[in-house]
Design goal:
Helix content: 25-40%
Number of helices: 9
CATH superfamily of the largest domain: Nucleotide-binding domain of ferredoxin-NADP reductase (FNR) module
Structural class: alpha/beta
Largest sheet: 7 strands, mixed
Strand order of the largest sheet: 12-11-10-9-13-14-17
CATH architecture of the largest domain: 3-Layer(aba) Sandwich
CATH class of the largest domain: Alpha Beta
Distance between the termini: 35 Å
Number of strands: 17
Oligomer: single chain
Radius of gyration: 19 Å
């Protein structure tokens, strides 16, 4: 059954990040924070995992945030409201643990990782928790969902690398200050791997600060999404191996061997680049042919 696109918006000023709302009655009924879906645009399309950024059970819809990085994501983002996607499978992955914690929770989002932070902050706040949110981006134009995050936060802190909004610096700068000044029950970090690595180094107790339980999301390394391809495996610091799609995607950040993971993270970068270049060339050729015909 094809799934209709109900809404679509461009986010930021990069031209590569889009918000998309899909009509998915059964998935919307079962979705929770931490879940993801597998999308296939058409019969020849690639299967790609995307984190559920929000759900609306009444409207029977889910919200996705998609960044164009290759042919499949560009093909998806080129669709319009009213168009239909061939396959949407889910919800997959594990729901995050929800409880009422004694002390505040710090939720940290970087880049498009801000979107899945929203649904986690929302569910945790509904459980009665105090939420301190830290958002980070390279510049103001790349920040997304500030208003949404503010709506589920008791305190919102923004950092940008260039200082164009909020504090000039990175997300670990305010995090260190928060941990120094008050007790924190939990830190959640979702964003680029290098960002999550340094959040974990800040909270693991090795730098003179108190150790704080930290959960990170490894959704960016998933491919197949069912545990069969093995691509999303990651090494743990005790020598073990886990799989982001079936053991996570949200896992204990203090067990992840980020150095090993960062070495593997860009292994398909050249293939993605080549595929996108070929797709763009096909699109240009098609547009040229249309102009010549008309």
């Amino acid at each position: 059954m094809p799934y209709e696109i109900l809404e679509k918006f461009e986010l930021g000023n990069s031209g590569t990040i889009f918000e998309m709302v899909l009509k998915t009655p059964l998935i919307a009924k079962k979705a929770y924070a931490g879940n993801f879906i597998i999308v296939r645009v058409n019969e020849t399309g690639e299967r790609i995992p995307l984190t559920i950024a929000d759900y609306d059970r009444k409207k029977e819809s889910i919200t996705l945030i998609i960044q164009v990085v290759g042919k499949s994501t560009k093909l998806l983002c080129n669709l319009r409201v009213g168009d239909k996607i061939l396959d949407v499978v889910g919800p997959l992955g594990n729901r995050i643990h929800i409880e009422k914690y004694e002390h505040p929770i710090v939720v940290i989002g970087g880049g498009i990782g801000i979107a899945p932070c929203y649904i986690q902050a929302k569910e945790l706040r509904e459980a009665g928790n105090k939420i301190i949110t830290i958002l980070g981006a390279r510049s103001k134009g790349l920040l997304i969902w500030k208003d949404r995050m503010n709506s589920v936060s008791d305190e919102l802190i923004i950092t940008t690398n260039d200082g164009s909004e909020g504090i000039q610096g990175v997300v670990t700068d305010p995090l260190k200050k928060i941990i120094q000044e008050k007790k924190i029950s939990l830190v959640i970090a979702i964003g680029p791997l290098v960002m999550m690595k340094y959040v974990v180094l800040t909270t693991n107790g090795s730098g003179g600060l108190p150790r704080v339980k930290t959960v990170v999301s490894l959704n960016t390394i998933m491919i197949d999404g069912t545990g069969m391809c093995g691509s999303c495996r990651f090494s743990t610091l005790d020598g073990g191996v886990q799989f982001a799609c079936v053991d996570g995607p949200d896992v204990d950040g203090h067990i992840v061997d980020f150095d090993n993971l960062l070495k593997r993270a860009n292994r398909f970068l050249e293939q993605e680049k080549h595929s996108l270049e070929c797709y763009d060339e096909e699109c240009r050729a098609l547009e040229k042919h249309k102009r010549e015909v008309t």
